[in-house]
Specification:
Length: 136
Amino acid sequence: MALMISGLSILVFVPIGLEIGLGAAVVVFAIIAILLTLSTPRIQVTERSLQVGRAGIERRHVGAVTGYRGDDATHQRGPALHGLAFMCIRGWIDPVVRIQIEDQRDRTPYWLTSTRNPEQLVEVLGGTMARDVESD
């Protein structure tokens, strides 16, 4: 996205001068890259809490945790998705982790978050990875 927008900024400033257009592209790319990095949701696990993006919960309310890859991950993001589930999904990251919520006061049945390292998150939260049937 940052490359595309910075490339387009060259077109805006080229009538003034090629050097100015290239300079503007570099500046626009840097600004967008910094903003995207700062706005990326983070997953943070401590002894007492779990933070996924802006949502947080005490670890005592975390139930079953399951990680998914491939077609299973696609199924979790699509047909298997519950309408009240909290999602923190980045479309370019395929694996997802489903975190069951056991707080009776919370209507959210589970959280579904994408992560590049589902095995690591699942291990820290004491869950399991779903077996990919196609890989057998």
